[in-house]
């Protein structure tokens, strides 16, 4: 059974703003110490300097250190 999403939106709902699709860049490797975080931080910084909206997510749970590369002190983590 297929349900159209437009049928689930109330008729009196305000129009949604037009949003361009996002580009996603994933950096992965099975080996540690190859520069994945450095490359991710460098690309995120370069895109941000160009005025692009940028989100950097370091998914190396337990060893994530993008905050160190960026000189940030996180107030909390996922643990």
Oligomer: single chain
Order of helices and strands: HHH
Could you report the average pLDDT, rounded to the nearest whole number?
Answer: 85
Helix content: 25-40%
Major sheet characteristics: none
Shape: elongated
How many helices in DSSP terms? 3
Beta fraction: under 5%
Low-confidence residue ranges: none
Structural class call reads: mainly alpha
Give the number of DSSP strands: 0
For the termini, the CA-CA separation is 39 Å
Tags for this model:
single chain; 79 residues; mainly alpha; 3 helices
Describe it:
This protein is an all-alpha fold and 79 residues long. It contains three helices and no strands. The longest helix has 14 residues, at 36-49. The protein is elongated and about 50 Å long. The N and C termini lie far apart (39 Å). The relative contact order is 0.11. The mean pLDDT is 85.
List the helices and strands and how they pair.
Elements: H1 5-8, H2 36-49, H3 66-70
Briefly characterize the structure.
The chain has 79 residues and is mostly helical. The protein is built from 3 helices and no strands.
